Amino acid sequence: MNRRTALFGLLDRYVARLFLLSYLTAFFLVVGLFLIIDMATNLDDYLSADAEGNSPAASLVIGFYALQLPFIYLQVSPYVTLIAGMFTATKMVRYREIVAAMNAGFSSRRAFFSVYLGAGILCACMFGLRELATESLGEWRDSLQERLKEKREHPLYEKFSILTDREDIHVQSYRPASEDRQAECLGLTVRYREGDRSVSISADRAEYQSGGRWALDGGRKLVSDDEGQRLSPHPVLEEIHLTPEDCYLSWKGKERCLDLSFSETLTLRRRSPSTAQYRTLLHYHLTLPLAGLVLLLVGLPFALGNQRGRAGERVAKGFFLCVAYFAADFVCRTVGLEGQIPPLYAGWLPTLFFGALGVVLTASMRT
Questions:
Q1: Would you say 15 and 112 are in contact if contact means Cβ atoms under 8 Å apart?
Q2: Are residues 107 and 161 in the same domain?
Q3: Which of 52-56, 81-85, 132-136, 175-179 shows the lowest per-residue confidence on average (mean pLDDT)?
Q4: Could you count the other beta carbons within 10 Å of the beta carbon of residue 15?
Q5: Span 27-43, mean pLDDT?
Q6: Whole-prediction pTM value?
Q7: 323 plus 340 within the same structural domain
Q8: Which residues pair with 224 in a beta bridge?
Q9: Residue 53 backbone zone (phi > 0: left; psi -120 to 50: alpha; other: beta)
């Protein structure tokens, strides 16, 4: 085996370089397009004045979109991978580089080894980027978006519950900590059981102290057992461990569950193991990064001209299968989040079906 045909030889490096340039082009094209669509949809609302006639600073809007950029990329990453692969295949077909590679002893599948390898690496990077971006930027991004949408100086997260096997916690509204005050909950209710006793703690306002403790304004504790009910004042909530992070994560799980990271979903799943929504999302976070590779397996055989029909018809068939994959993924995910099908099927059925179809199409490519 010489250096031309060896793994990561001249052909692999050439195709990898071509795929990288195509990926950068597709990145700016697709991410830029979705960014413009987002701005066209929401920018007027973000820039509108509040009740006092004050408009948000331009730096606030720019900062929000800078934080939003990684999350837009995560949404469209499979499209970017597909388009980059199509660009690479189109260029090599147009300049008959595929024919030259096959004359040199390469199969068409082997010629695109670098593309498939790159797509696999991007799958892992996409998973890692979601975890990193959500952990480091997610709450900051959500806070700025709430300020721009609701025209509040500080974000206010309303009406959510924290349900575990031991306690039920209901919050009317939650304000995160700021420079001049601690995090606080308005309209807090906690219910749990201690043996044969049922305990309910409620407060008009709760301010976070430390170590999961909250100072209560208007705190009341109601204990119910076989002897009756006893109501008493309750100034500090320390019977349960509740943190501001728990409050934000529970609100996010209710309002923006698809923005959760895998680790956040795992935390909510452990807290509420019977909830179908979190069980489905765990599988969804594992299969979503694979979408780009699945799309390449399905679409590239048509772009390379290894299927019957004219070039336009072949590409149309390839894109139709890609659209069918996203449609099946959307339907399965939606019914899975509603608990109508098992989470395992909701997360993996479209990926496995279209992935297997892509493997068959790729294996049937003429060599």
A1: yes
A2: no
A3: 52-56
A4: 22
A5: 94
A6: 0.86
A7: yes
A8: 198, 229
A9: left
